[in-house]
Amino acid sequence: EVLASQIAAGEVVERPASVVKELLENSLDAGATEIDIHTQGGGCALIEVADNGCGMGKEDALLCLERYATSKLGSFEELTRLRSYGFRGEALPTIASVSSFLLRTREEDDPVGTEVSVEAGKLISVREIGRDRGTTVQVRSLFSRLPARRRFLRSPAREQAHLQRQVMLAAMAQPGTAFRFRHGSRGEGTVWPSARSREDRLAAIFGEDWIEALLPLQANRPEISLTGFLSRPGIGKPSREEQFFFVNRRPVESRLISAALQEGYRHSLLRGLHPTVVLWLEIDPSRIDPNVHPAKREIRFREERELWSLVVEAVAQRLGRQPVVSF
Ligand code: ADP
Ligand code: MG
């Protein structure tokens, strides 16, 4: 069982940033309004995510470390109506199988909290603790017993950049939630207080100047609504690092959206440049399939053409050009 978990770990937990992503999704699913993240050594030494969400009782705290134990899926049909981030019940047992893992949690109505300690998938101890409502997951020595996986990782600085992006994506997806992020052992770190709007959150993350240089975007179809910001004609980056897409508050990657953007900008960007874009899409959950890969962000859409033309037309119109929609 432990070995199977460790083998499967590569699927869900590729690198420290994947752990951060899973833990943040769990905290957001738990309704947290405040999330504290602390990492060390690019996430290999320490990843700690503490939230003020609903927490877990003792039974659930133990159950959540069992494979496929998710509290988020009552039936298969629910998959299609899915609004929460997690639904596979794989992340925690997988992470616990490749680290020194500590879970501290308390539910509102419970007089005491629970602490569960796991070493490389082996339950070490369960005890009662006092704490506020919410959950803290502490992951130490990630992959330390898996030298092959460790070798695949980049430098701590690179891994840190990856995990920092996950924190940023979560903060952009959920502006109402306050985030505090600290890396290393010193300093206050980054604080993004609860924001009233997506725009305010972007300003907190990237600065007022960054957001003011962008054009607001808005488009609606019966099945899809789109809001966002994009860079002016001619302005872009050599990489796609400033392209952020969210579908129903979930950060996603989509080659379709990237290509549609490029098409919308046609001739308004220099070759090799990518526009700065933040897009939030709301789509009926039955029209998307987030279940392509356990960890990857790539998302599939049922009505690809509709989405393609919506993005191309919205961007082209915003940039003041006649849209040319072709396939
Ligand atoms: P999934 O998110 O797919 O359900 P996970 O392994 O990530 O699977 O989590 C398993 C379960 O543990 C969740 O369904 C949830 O009930 C519980 N859980 C995990 N993290 C938290 C948290 N931060 N707060 C409250 N409950 C949590
Ligand atoms: Mg999860």
What can you tell me about this protein's structure?
With 327 residues, the protein is α+β, with helices and mostly antiparallel strands. It folds into two domains: 2-192, Heat Shock Protein 90; 213-318, Ribosomal Protein S5, domain 2. Helix content is 31%, strand content 25%. The protein is built from ten helices and 15 strands. It has helices spanning 2-12, 16-29, 58-63, 91-97, 147-152, 156-173, 198-206, 208-212, 255-264, 304-318; strands at 34-40, 46-51, 100-106, 113-119, 122-129, 134-140, 178-183, 190-192, 215-220, 224-230, 243-247, 250-252, 277-283, 288-289, 300-301. Strands 5-4-3-6-2-1-7-8 form an eight-stranded mixed sheet. A five-stranded mixed sheet has the order 9-10-13-11-12. The longest helix has 18 residues, at 156-173. The radius of gyration is 21 Å and the shape is elongated. 38% of the residues are buried. The structure holds adenosine-5'-diphosphate (ADP) and magnesium ion. Magnesium ion (MG) is lined by residues 22, 25-26, 86, 91.
Number of domains: 2
Nearest-integer average pLDDT? 88
Sheet with the most strands?
A: 8 strands, mixed
> What is the third-level CATH name, the topology of the largest domain?
Heat Shock Protein 90
Shape: elongated
**How many alpha or pi helices?**
10
How many β-strand runs? 15
GO cellular component, one term: mismatch repair complex
Domain DNA mismatch repair protein S5: 202-320
Keywords: DNA damage, DNA repair
GO molecular function: ATP binding; ATP hydrolysis activity; ATP-dependent DNA damage sensor activity; mismatched DNA binding
